[in-house]
Amino acid sequence: xxxxxxxxxxxxxxxxxxxxxxxxxxxxxxxxxxxxxxxxxxxxxxxxxxxxxxxxxxxxxxxxxxxxxxxxxxxxxxxxxxxxxxxxxxxxxxxxxxxxxxxxxxxxxxxxxxxxxxxxxxxxxxxxxxxxxxxxxxxxxxxxxxxxxxxxxxxxxxxxxxxxxxxxxxxxxxxxxxxxxxxxxxxxxxxxxxxxxxxxxxx
Length: 203
What we know:
The chain has helices spanning 2-16, 23-30, 34-40, 44-67, 73-87, 95-102, 104-131, 141-154, 165-183, 186-202. By secondary structure, it is mainly α. The protein has a single domain (45-202), classed as Tetracycline Repressor, domain 2 (Orthogonal Bundle), CATH 1.10.357.10.
């Protein structure tokens, strides 16, 4: 039952927002009493903490699955971006913005784990891209990773609640394009243009 509550809570928080969804809403969605939820979670903060952790773990598993599919480095980044787009397609604004605003303790706890996972994935992607001749060898990989992480996080915070879902996806595409153009070889730029065109068609 606890796993069902976490899964339903995670879906509801992402779709309707962390602030607006109540324990009553989640209980009604599951057809259970609110007391049942409180058997597993002492309050909403505890439920948010664990639901966010579950979403975070699910997201990581999806990323690792994409990385195992044999895409080249640039294709891989676009597949990951599209995974995020599909995962958050029903959200009215950025889940990270909501979390930072209404549950800062949970946000601060998760952001450290996020960077560690992000760092490992991007460094592996950079090494793959260099090996395949898609990225330039002459770059500071750690610095590039920090720059990219800062750019990605910047579009999921501040005033993004004024943007719609399509705007958020376009911003993510723009950040990925900016990141890739900064490090790509001529061979890599050709693949980037192909991915941008494919992304445009799919939208």
